User: Which sequence fits this backbone?
């Protein structure tokens, strides 16, 4: 039997209430259809319709949201998966690789991972992530400028429980601080699926969204052999035990990745590069003619028959030659998108198959579309033009800065909950309202039931008499605040901030 056997990776069992016994191809497909239903109908997916792709608080419905972007990634992911399976079938390798009865699940896992890939993103995208991390770094790390007497029974947000103190707890404190100050959308996606939404997806489906394999509390240098796979946090301390079990169920190495995740990642790379440019034209940041000039100038040397000529110039010429039925803008992006997909999807499929031994083992330390080829150069071209002419545009930068202020302001508003002592917060959790702390009681009431229950469940598993209890209770309390604010949509966060700051 080949060492590459996808039956060991496409694990259709679940953590809770898992189907037992051997299953036929049809029964396994039904299990993954159940995953599909759980994902499509989840509130986390619905909230993506009001989360930023590029332009925060956008009211033009033609401009992409995280939801419409994710749907496009889903289609491209399906295209790549089908291309891979078709090529393996032509090479008579489906059975060799244990895929002859798993083509349906293979496609479904990729599709649903593509749809879910952004569910952990906070309001205002990367600026929301930066706001959360900066706020916690400023308050959780020890500061010589701020000192509190250790006898103070009511801690400030720069909390005593996370200060250096009793030696045996210092490693835990450092680990917790590092974890809380490295909020990341991909790690939050894992937390949403398992701890908050309790979706009980199959191991294979969750494995496919574990994009990065570095824990958020990691403080050392990442090994060169996994520098790409570990370049960002992939999961939190709160999900450590779950990820350990996931790795065991999917036969993953400690820092390795699930094989189908490379397909999801490639689909995202292909989709957003063209989409960001199209949205910029829709927003009138530049015209389609100006975009073509930006692309032409950034490509550099222009040789006949180059990939640029086959993709970008071809789209430009076709869009100029027929403007009777559609606008030049619409036609240019239609041809640009089609040409880009027709070149990059087969190349991504080839890269997947050519590197399958390393990909299957989880050790391929690159993205599929990250090499010295002209295909990778084309993607970099789109990214370069977007970075230079879209993301640096004053209107975009102003909205991002506003988003940063909104998230920072909301964290400040809810900070009284982090100032309570363990006993005070425990009393508030038990009774929901405590008369002597009216502000904290009202803030606690505003937190969603789902997030509060996740906190209660997490601390219920801790040993209250252990020395670690105060540190871990505070960790999960901080997570509670991060969960609530990161789960907001852009518009809800904006409205909440304005209402609570009394600026309306």
Assistant:
């Amino acid at each position: 039997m080949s060492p590459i056997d996808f039956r060991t990776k496409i694990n259709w069992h679940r953590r809770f209430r898992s189907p037992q016994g051997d299953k036929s191809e049809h029964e396994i497909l039904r299990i993954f259809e159940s995953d599909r239903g759980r994902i499509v109908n989840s509130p986390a997916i619905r909230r993506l319709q009001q989360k930023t792709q590029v332009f925060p608080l956008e009211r033009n419905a033609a401009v992409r949201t995280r939801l419409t972007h994710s749907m496009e990634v889903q289609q491209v992911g399906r295209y790549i998966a089908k291309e891979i399976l078709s090529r393996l079938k032509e090479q008579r390798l489906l059975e060799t690789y244990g895929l002859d009865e798993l083509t349906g699940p293979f496609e479904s896992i990729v599709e649903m991972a593509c749809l879910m890939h952004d569910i952990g993103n906070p309001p205002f995208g990367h600026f929301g992530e930066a706001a959360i991390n900066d706020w916690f770094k400023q308050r959780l790390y020890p500061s010589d400028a701020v000192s509190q007497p250790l006898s103070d029974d009511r801690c400030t947000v720069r909390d005593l429980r996370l200060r250096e103190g009793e030696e045996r707890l210092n490693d835990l404190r450092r680990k917790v601080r590092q974890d809380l100050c490295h909020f990341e959308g991909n790690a939050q996606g894992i937390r949403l699926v398992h701890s908050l939404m309790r979706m009980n997806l199959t191991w294979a489906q969750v494995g496919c969204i574990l994009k990065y394999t570095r824990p958020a509390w990691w403080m050392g240098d990442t090994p060169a052999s996994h520098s790409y796979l570990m370049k960002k946090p992939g999961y939190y301390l709160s999900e450590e035990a779950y990820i350990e079990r996931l790795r065991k169920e999917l036969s993953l190495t400690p820092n390795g990745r699930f094989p189908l995740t490379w397909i999801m990642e490639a689909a995202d790379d292909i989709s957003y590069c063209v989409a960001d440019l199209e949205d910029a034209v829709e927003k009138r940041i530049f015209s389609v003619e100006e975009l073509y000039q930006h692309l032409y100038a950034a490509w550099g040397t222009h040789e006949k028959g180059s990939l640029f000529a086959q993709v970008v110039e071809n789209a430009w010429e076709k869009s100029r030659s027929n403007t009777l039925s559609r606008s030049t803008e619409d036609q240019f992006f239609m041809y640009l998108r089609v040409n880009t997909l027709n070149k990059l999807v087969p190349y991504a499929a080839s890269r997947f198959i050519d590197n399958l031994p390393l990909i299957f083992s989880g050790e391929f330390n690159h993205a599929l579309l990250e090499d010295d080829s002209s295909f990778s150069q084309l993607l970099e071209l789109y990214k370069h033009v977007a970075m230079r002419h879209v993301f640096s545009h004053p209107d975009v930068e102003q909205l991002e800065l506003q988003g940063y202020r909104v998230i920072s302001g909301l964290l400040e508003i809810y900070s009284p909950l982090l100032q309570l002592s363990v006993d005070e917060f425990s009393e508030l959790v038990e009774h929901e309202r405590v008369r002597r702390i009216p502000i904290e009681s009202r803030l606690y009431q505003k937190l969603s039931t789902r997030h509060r229950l996740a906190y209660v469940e997490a601390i219920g598993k801790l040993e209250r008499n252990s020395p670690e209890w105060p540190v871990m209770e505070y960790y999960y309390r901080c997570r509670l605040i991060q969960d609530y604010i990161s789960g907001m949509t852009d518009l809800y966060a904006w409205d909440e901030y304005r209402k609570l700051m009394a600026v309306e």
